[in-house]
Amino acid sequence: MARPSLKENIVAAALDTLHRQGFNATGVQDITDAAGVPKGSFYNHFESKEDLGIEVIERYWQRALTHLGMLNDANVPPIVRLKSYFRSLDEISRKNKYQRGCLIGNMATEMSDQSRPIRERLAIVMAAWTRGIESCVREAQADGSMRRDIDAKMIASFLLNAWEGTAMRTKVDKDRTALEAFEKVVFTSLTQ
Amino acid sequence: MARPSLKENIVAAALDTLHRQGFNATGVQDITDAAGVPKGSFYNHFESKEDLGIEVIERYWQRALTHLGMLNDANVPPIVRLKSYFRSLDEISRKNKYQRGCLIGNMATEMSDQSRPIRERLAIVMAAWTRGIESCVREAQADGSMRRDIDAKMIASFLLNAWEGTAMRTKVDKDRTALEAFEKVVFTSLTQ
């Protein structure tokens, strides 16, 4: 097996550190310390912390995209897939003791007005995430399990945004209350 | 009219600066510069930036609470009040050019895992905000305009969280799409 590159070590350490502490609370030194590499090596691989931030978003998104794949499982009814998907995100929150939240949401909140390149990358990622949910919503509307009087794209966008707000609230309350409200309201009011 | 105190100047400047830049991107010096006061005077009034952060949350919440008062207007049907309330938040987003977002949500995302006193204050504020929405939801359920098969408290908590996620998404997209999805989905699926 190839030895992980120095760059790879930095990205992995940054993914963890930025997720835990946020972008502005984390210095380049914190990241290189966590990666166990000399601070000087950072700028051989990244132009700036912002540049690394974009790489970290991309890495996190690739994982999220793999997870999103469960929404395509044709062996499971689409409404069940949607419920399982949000339950699995809920499970991740629980395992993380309601800390960290979603890196995409965290970066969106903290960096949208501070970095145009980060904001633009987040817009692309969130649009792709919305499309992933939308195709499953469309299937659920087609088989009659989800209401059809609201456009699938609007429902998908709303679900992602409501989920992000739920993840945020969970960080504050440190319990399942917000997650329970999400599941109950969404799967009562949007199904039929 | 009494001259605003030095402390008051610092809180007002911090409210603006922390809302624009976030907590960790803002130094005490940025705040005292914005307030036009010497940096040394800061620690005569606040133990720490965290201490000021709590004061800023309180100040922002007092404003939000006044605004929330429109949900009690007995001259307007409760479902119309709810719609007008979220529309008015939407209007504030638009005026701010979809920048800044909600200070409560921003602090929740950035600081919940970094500061226990800030997180505890946010939990109190978000619980009070939820109760303000809940009483109007309860009235709308009583007059038959909102569905009754979901507990009013759950609906209220969900609405606040979904709104926060919507505000977050709006910061990324810099347009009304997320706000439109919120209004359409909520006022189609929760009303009857």
Question: Explain this structure to me?
Answer:
- With 192 residues, the first copy, chain A, is mainly alpha-helical.
- Chain A has nine helices and no strands.
- In chain A, helix 1 (6-21) packs across helix 2 (28-35) and helix 8 packs antiparallel against helix 9 (177-189).
- Chain A is elongated.
- At the A-B interface, helix 6, helix 7, helix 8 and helix 9 of A face helix 6, helix 7, helix 8 and helix 9 of B.
Q: Main attributes?
A:
homodimer; 192 residues; mainly alpha
The dominant shape of chain A is elongated
Quickly give the structural class of chain A.
Answer: mainly alpha
Helix content of chain A: over 70%
| Tally of contiguous helical segments of chain A | 9
Percentage of residues in DSSP E strands of chain A: under 5%
Instruction: Give the strand tally of chain A.
Output: 0
Biggest sheet of chain A, open or closed, and with what strands and sense? none
* Multimeric state: homodimer
- Enumerate the spans of chain A where pLDDT stays under 50 for 5 or more consecutive residues: none
- Alpha-carbon Rg of chain A, integer: 18 Å
Order of helices and strands of chain A: HHHHHHHHH
- Overall mean pLDDT of chain A stands at 96
Quick structural overview:
The structure is a homodimer of 192-residue chains. Chain A is mainly α and 192 residues long.
